[in-house]
Structure prediction request, 342 residues.
Amino acid sequence: MTEQYLQHSEVPLSQRYPLALVDLDGVAYKGHEPINHASDGLNAARQHGMRLVFVTNNASREPQDVAQQLTSLDIPAHSDDVMTAAQACARLLTQHVEPGAKVLVIGGAGLRTAVHEAGYTIVESADDNPIAVAQGFAPTLGWKDLAEAAYAVTAGALHVASNLDLSLPTARGFAPGNGSLVGAVKAATGVEPLSAGKPSPAMYHMAIERAGASTALVIGDRLDTDLAGARAGGLHGLHVLTGVSTIRDAINASPIERPHYLACDLRALTTTHPAVTQRNGWWVCGASAVRVVDSALEVWESDDSEGSPDGLDPARAACVAAWNYADTHPTTTQFDLPEALV
Prediction:
């Protein structure tokens, strides 16, 4: 089956891939709260020999703080196991601005540390004539911070964002992410910023290089960042349904955002993943089959089977059926989904 569609694995993913690049918010935890089965799944994967590196678009926190939070949630981690968008942002700066230059940092401690360690002089105001603005998320940012960024960018400073996530999951729901705050500066200046975070695959490649690996499995909850980054970087991606993007989103995903595997949660790292095959006009996964008729998905399930252990075989078949139809009918936009799928 084409790499554009879901893949299958006859061995657990933790045995197929030596390294996993794990997103944080919506995958390993939600805000400061644990996610069901995250610690169980990740610790079991480690026991199978899989190495974990946590790759996050959050640029506000220091890697050691992230590692401490993971450890407190029964996911043991060290700072070297964490790759942040702040580190990627600092590296992106080095491609455009000479070390020693003045940089206005709009963000949290993690971004300030990364920019400082990259050799730049951090300033606090647009009046200091910075060469660049590095912007990342921090819950304490306000209008004055965004205004300083806008003043500097209008005066000619390079605008570099740690990421462009429009929202971020918290224990209370979804809140504005860095992309929303960057959007305010963009709207005020008319200048399109550079972005270091996902969906750029830069962080993934940095993490693979740091781990001394040749490839990795990307694990995320957002199709537009985590999984799009995997596709952009030529890596396989596992989409878990514990965060932002839903089954409906996956079925309607564009080619650049499609995952290679679909799972309810991180227990999927230590299980096999079934194949989706075509048979008599239907796409079949286990005891479930799906076809597209006039942009609507039809689902058939055998009465003689208990179904898949995770209940996702209908969704897997629907993803491949929808993607195949969309690829051969370019004007298709969104599919009508029966209740059995959502």
